[in-house]
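anyone else get weird line breaks when pasting these?? whatever heres mine. first is seq + tokens for prot A
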Amino acid sequence: LSSDLSTSPPSGFEADRTLPITVKLYLCLETMSKKPTIAVVGSLNYDLVTRVPRLPELGETLTAKSFGTNCGGKGANQAVAAARLADRCEKIDVKMVGAVGGDGFGNEMKEQMKKQGVDVEDVRVVDGMSSGVAVIVVDDTTGDNRIMITPGANASVTPSSLPSWLFNPSTAPDIIVLQLEIPLETVQYIINQSSQIQPRIPIIFNPAPAVPLDESIYSKVEILILNETEAALLSGVDFAVREESAERQDTLKRKAKEAVDWFVKRGARDIVITLGAYGAYYYDHQSGDQGWFNAHHIANVVDSTGAGDTFVGAIAINYVELKHAEREFCIEGGVSVATDAAAWSVQRSGTWRSMPLGKDLREPPADNSSSSSKSVLH
């Protein structure tokens, strides 16, 4: 063995001089050989999905076209999206941290996540509580949706319930992915704890559903990903646009830039604002560049449910893959991969079934009539 192993242990072990040298060497080797890991801390919801010919007006009753059930929740969706893109975790471990109720919904969600390659050892079963449930209405013509959530056991994901490995330098993940379908205090605790560890644990933060936040959070996350609704609520920029087609896209770009500038002033690093069929606007904190990716032109949008979560999972995978290939991550490349993944997902029904495997993205999206393009704004 090289003497470097005993003289240069990984960050986090230097301060502990009480351990025997054999234990230090074991921990050092364990850290060096540890499989790349993404930890998703968030919600698991059982989806009840109704497909309708159009979204109903206030007080209107419609006859639905179909009804089905899916496993979901933003946390679970993002974990599954990452696991599927990692070719069912052959290269990267994806761990889910969360809670389900002691009911049939909870058991099914854990089993289905296992089948997708997600480690669910830290998904607790909370007896006496229901699992989280999401009621989803999908417009069968446009693929647009409306979602209503009952948190259930997701509300029990508190700071004291988190596993100890999450913040231990020898076992900490390469990146943590967070949303806002678990208690806000837990999200804030994870962000603060991760920023205090050396080396700092990177955070991908998807503040959805958006609620008012302490502005000090933004400087502590590596990548901020949000849609225009969330960006509007948090930044105060009004994304309402009356124009159509090209004029509408130009107006959205200007508004996205306003919102990005607001987040940058508050210390945000890499930022992505997704704008559905119009594309995504990004900010690269290293170069200072701001750019725009046009969305793929999809001829047949089947269901947009889970597309945003697929986008987040794809960026997480891209970040960790590049890190362990000793290559530098840049948000522009991450958005490119994520745009392809989201385009793939909207052409299929079923939230998890629609998410691509890594091998699926070696070819352009099947119904893509033109490649996505980007422009960089300085």
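and prot B, same format (seq, then tokens)
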Amino acid sequence: MSLNTRVVLREYAPEGVYSPDCFTVDHSQPIPDPKALAKGQVLVQVSALSVDPHQRIFISPPPEKPTIKSAFRYPLGQSIFGIGVGTVAASKSTEFAVGDKVRSEGMPWQAHAILGEDQLTKLPASDSALSDHVGVYGMAAFTAYLGTIYAGKPRAGETILVSAASGAVGQVAVQLAKARGLRVVGMAGSDEKAEHIKGLGADAVINYKTCGDLNAAIEEAAPNGIDIYFDNVGGEILDTALLWLNSLARVVLCGSMSTYGAAQSKIHGVTNLPSIIVKQVALQCIYYLPHYGTQRETDFLQEMAQLVEQGKIQFRVDERIGLESAPQALADLFVGKNFGKLIIKV
């Protein structure tokens, strides 16, 4: 009997940096039997999983008094899930056949998983690796495209500041902005990552951990002010960036990594909002999911495929092998030990 590998949440992670010990990599259950599939269900052999910052929220302890506004939490004792891709191994669905390549926003962190046909999207036949659909053609790159092009509304000659610019979203935002004629300033937390961002075409890079005075560093890197701020981290960096925005600037609120899993008392609140009111700055949140299946996704896939074919886009992937590596990979994401888009190759 072949056994399934699953990443199971054993206990909720406390505030702050969590230990991978809150997970168990379980081998106690058999691979699901195709004969057990109900009508409309599909057995997927999972190939690759996306490791994403928002998952830190889902493993935090639930509030003592949950409300309808409380964030979702993964159930204890079950596999966690996220964005993933795989191949149909068995099917009782009229929509999917054995061998189809599929993506799911709720792919269990397992070697094999049963999903309903309504949880899956069939991927087009292509020569690209299946893992590219959680990489250069995946959620992070699509988010960067939406934020840079539609929320940022870039115009040649403007200046964009991108936080976490070596990360999954930031690296694409840097290159899309540069291709459209912007002055690009990236931010990162190590000299190695800063050099990588320069290699992507950024005009200036700030190492926020070593620059000392962040205000002075932004002023030097963006002497004409900031027209677009692409925020991936929130907290103090967001609050500081607001001071350097030009009139009619755009702020793209994509993520808040500095706050995920942090104690409320340790979160740096935004105090500089009054400085942007008279400048008529626009703040827009970006969430990819409502844009799946729209013309914007089609445009994104076409542009990225063309850039990849022409060798005009770099997409760095931090690939971890095996589900056994998954708990540590998620931990690494929040202490800067990843470099590029974190993916688990199952």
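btw re prot B: The first helix runs from residue 55 to 58. The chain has a mean pLDDT of 93.
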